[in-house]
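User: What would this chain look like folded?
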Amino acid sequence: MAPVVVTATRTKHSLGDVPAAVSVVTRKEIDQMPAQNVLDVLRTMPGVTVDADRSMFGSSTYNKVIIRGMGGDSQGRVQVLIDGMPAMPPGSNIFEWNSINLDAVERVEVVRGPSSALYGSNAMGGVINIITRTPPKDGFTTTVDTKYGSYNTWDSSLFHAGTAGKFSYSLSGSYLTSYGFNGIPEHSSKASSNQKAGYNDDGTGIRNATGAARVGYKFDKTADVTFTADVASNLRTGQYNFDSDYRLYEYHKTGFGTRLHKDFGAVDSSLAFRADLLNTDFDNIGGTMAKGYRVDYVNPTKQEQYTLDQQNTYALGDNQLVTAGINASYGQSDKHYDYSPSSTGKNRVRETGGKQYTMAGYLQDEISFFDNKLLIIPGLRYDVIGTNGYDKDSSNKSRPGRKEYGMETDSRLSPKLGVRVNPWDGMLVFRANYGEAFRSASLDERFGEYIYGSTLYRGSPDLKPETSRTIDAGFDFTPVKDLTFGITGYVTWADNYIASVQSSTKNAQGYYVSQKQNLDSVQIAGLEGEASWKAMDYLTLFANGTILNPQMTSGKYQGNQIPFTPTSKATLGFTFDHPDWFTLRVGETWTGPIWTDQDNTEAFQEGNFWLTEVRISKRFTFKDYWVEPYAELQAATTKEEVRYTTTSRVPTNLVFVGVKAGF
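Assistant: Here's the prediction, encoded as structure tokens.
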């Protein structure tokens, strides 16, 4: 049976029964993958590209997701949800992929294409919905997993859930330690990116821990309430050998939420609340190779995000389903740049931050005709977003106080229209969609500032929201029961595209300045296809591919490709799953050319590589429990280095062995 999906329409449908292009990875498929986190699950999905992929060895700064060319140097163009609620704080618009235990995930749904009509800002390229596991209907279940592998990495996790009468609960946790991976090579054919004196030749130490709890109560068959809480902590150290306490990145998150659901018969209603509190910090390096490096400044940052969503779904007869809801959110970000006495800042203190408020209402109508052979889904959402910020710099003698940027308010109406035609009972299905989307600049993009190496990265308070219009059309063809393939073509026109533009000369303080700007217009045209064939009872073959032309169509860089956006991607592989023998999954993924600067300089082009993944396991089942030893190979390649950017490499040829058990 096809998996049930909810993200494309906010209502339950079987996969393939909606006009949108949707992909899903189920719990069973996750168990068969050589995956450390959700990012590894996304890597092989149709239309999805992971940029600067360092998996568990990288923070959210590197691990960014691109859908249909939307993403690049800003992850905020793809909305990430956990159980349908936004999971990206407005300060950075970045999701930390290591903050959720993969064993606690039931499935991952990806909607490709604009989704602002349901989810508001950020959903330009699409939506990723991470849906967590629910307790069993009766009894309990427990799984434990531990693995060891490359870079002295230990990764262990636990999931336990149960139901007792009207109460249900789940607990999960994970803990990872690793010698780590240094993205800056010691010796490379690209000498300009090699390690310099003062670097640690070895890895970057990693400690990552997560924990989550869920409690539910079922009043009766029509009403229930759920409470959730989760924590995550990530620490990366040791990139430089001059300071044993150097922090490359530190992340702590606390989240909690609740959802109340009631089915009134003709109306299904839910009220959900989610809060996330984040603290991050890193040490910035200053100095020179000749005189030695030092910690120039520390950057403690606090972010808060609160979201409330009330949704009602009305059944108007047998052929019409109307969904209406309201959404409100509040986000805040506060950054501090505390310079050391020996730095060029001379005890300088810089404070930046701001607040963002959102009020929205959304409406969607699902209308079916001719015994569901024709499905039409119009929808729209109206957002009002207010943003303000501040900037205080102790070194600014002409303005010793705090500069306040006044409240800026923007309103957006995001319409959509989807059509699905199913004339031959699922053998051939036609899909077409039109949608508009937008993205408000993050607080970091507006008010942030930091130094990395010889470059000063700076925001722009007057950034305009990005907007886009997308048309797509495609079909799914199932000529025989176990063979399915589909093709979708799309064109996106986007205005006020935000990107960093770097100066060609240094400023008075000796830095190149890379500032966020609206780069007028872009156009992204693409074609994506996917196929799956169950060749026999235990063997499934799969393949998918994407080609696109992400091009800037106006302004200074007209005609150039959008940086950090691969122009092609392909995945092919198979899964062999025999209960009496073993389970084997093999996949190959190709990533095409990637331009890493606005000028599309040939010397700065990266990409063009194949990566292989393999997982083999054997489950031994006993009366009350099962045990499954396994081995994994990730990012296998024959290339000397794999790069998404000119400045650093990504980990390759990773090997892990482990054992998983359940009862």
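The longest helix spans residues 27-32. If you want, I can go into more detail on any region.
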